[in-house]
Write a structure and sequence with these properties.
heterodimer; A: about 190 residues; mainly alpha; two-stranded antiparallel sheet; about 0% strand; B: about 240 residues; elongated
């Protein structure tokens, strides 16, 4: 594998991969670790991929597997989610004027039910078709469509709450739709 | 497909239009032409999706992430043999094939192969390029040919009458064949002299003293003088051939 190829892949995919990782982990430093780990895996094992046109799928699949692997380990050594301690932090006063701000969208996306979050993030990153998302997440196509439909609805509800709060200059919690149950990914 | 089913399917249509050619969406997209309400819904949905997608993409990744990834590459460098495993494997295969090819080529282009093919050529001989009794004229004819000429023949062969000559091709190399008639002692026998440039035969050649080989139908005397390699072939055995030296 040539260095220019590696640099080109990093340039092309590190941001979408990071955003996907963030949607999975909900924590910036873990998303960074996952993204870095993914490219590390590519640097050490990417040469085994014969069809170079599948590099994108390889990267996203590798990242997802790494996340699932880390989460299996986490179940034995749990730690607190950011949401669980967010009440200890000062509430953020929304000062955004635009209807949709990048930070708000990311924040809302992270509040979407975990079940819908991965397909929804992949959909909005626009790197994958619904068929590729189904393949990546190992889900039937109908399930992906269903989760996209419900996930979009949930995201819009969350954004509406945030938007209304911004317009009313209210102080809003970071995660108004905090899910109460932990569901398995997929 | 009803209106709700179309909405369900179109919900998976990426706002950037990347899925426009996907046949799965065709029917639902065609419905937009006949259902203004559905078209309005889709337009609004797509605009909102595009907005969300743009905002999601605009959220920056940590500024030093890219630099960290590239820096980590330096310590993640795989051994060169692993990075280029496929190329090296092909190179190894090629090297083995070349070696085998070299062995095969050597086995098939050395003196043994040449000798075998020349014996067969004599057995199969059915015509000559030049029919001529006079060896001097045969020499002259050969001088004009691409085949070896001007070589030294044993004196006792020079004493024989000529039948003619032919130029053979052996693996792209020219071989001179001279047919001689031995009427001495009432034998009415034929012998054949084959001459090739020594440089055209890789590997070891016979020495200047004739070496004899014999099979059920033909005997040969084999020698070389440094410039040419010679085979004298006849049907009366090695002892008879030895009499020409």
């Amino acid at each position: 594998m040539d260095d220019p190829e590696f640099e080109e892949l990093v340039e092309r995919f590190y941001q979408p991969l990071y955003r996907f990782a963030l949607s999975l982990t909900k924590r910036e430093h873990e998303a960074c670790d996952l993204t870095q780990h993914t490219f590390y895996m590519w640097a050490t094992k990417g040469h085994q991929l014969r069809d170079r046109s599948k590099a994108k799928t390889w990267l996203f699949t590798t990242l997802l597997r790494a996340f699932l692997g880390s989460r299996r380990r986490e179940t034995r050594f749990p730690h607190h989610e950011f949401d669980q301690v967010s009440h200890e932090l000062p509430s953020q006063k929304a000062t955004v004027v635009n209807d949709l701000d990048g930070g708000i969208v990311v924040e809302a996306m992270l509040s979407v039910d975990e079940l819908y979050r991965s397909p929804l993030t992949l959909f909005y990153l626009e790197e994958h078709s619904y068929k590729e998302i189904a393949e990546l997440l190992d889900l039937p196509i109908g399930t992906v469509m269903s989760r996209l439909s419900r996930g979009k609805q949930q995201l819009r509800d969350l954004l509406r709450v945030r938007r209304d709060a911004v317009r009313g200059d209210k102080i809003v919690p970071l995660n108004p739709h905090r899910e109460t149950s932990h569901r398995q990914h997929g | 497909m009803d209106n709700e089913q179309a909405k369900f399917i179109l919900g998976a249509f990426r706002p950037g239009g990347q899925d426009a050619d996907d046949p799965q969406f065709r029917e639902a997209l065609e419905m937009l032409n006949h259902d203004p309400k559905l078209a309005g819904w889709f337009e609004a949905q797509r605009a909102e999706d595009a907005d969300i997608a743009a905002q999601l993409r605009s959220a920056p990744a940590p500024p030093d992430l890219k630099r960290t990834i590239l820096a980590a590459k330096a310590v993640a460098r795989t051994p060169i043999w692993r990075r280029h495993f496929t190329a090296l494997a092909w190179a190894a295969c090629l090297a083995v094939l070349l070696c085998l090819g070299g062995i095969w080529r050597h086995a098939n282009s050395g003196y043994a192969a040449y000798h075998k093919d020349m014996v067969q050529a004599v057995i199969d001989l059915d015509s000559l390029d030049l029919r001529e009794k006079d060896l001097t004229r045969i020499d002259e004819w050969l001088d004009q040919s691409p085949a070896p000429s001007g070589f030294e023949m044993p004196d006792k062969l020079r004493d024989l009458a000529g039948l003619g000559c032919r130029v053979l091709d052996w693996k792209g190399r020219k071989v001179t064949l001279i047919c001689l008639k031995d009427d001495s002692k009432g034998l009415h026998d034929k012998v054949h002299l084959l001459v090739i440039n020594a440089n055209d035969l890789p590997g070891s050649l016979p020495g200047p003293t004739p070496e004899f080989k014999e099979n059920s139908s033909i005997a040969t005397a084999n020698w070389s003088d440094g410039k040419y390699a010679y085979i004298l072939a006849g049907h009366r055995g090695s002892r008879h051939l030895a009499g020409y030296f």
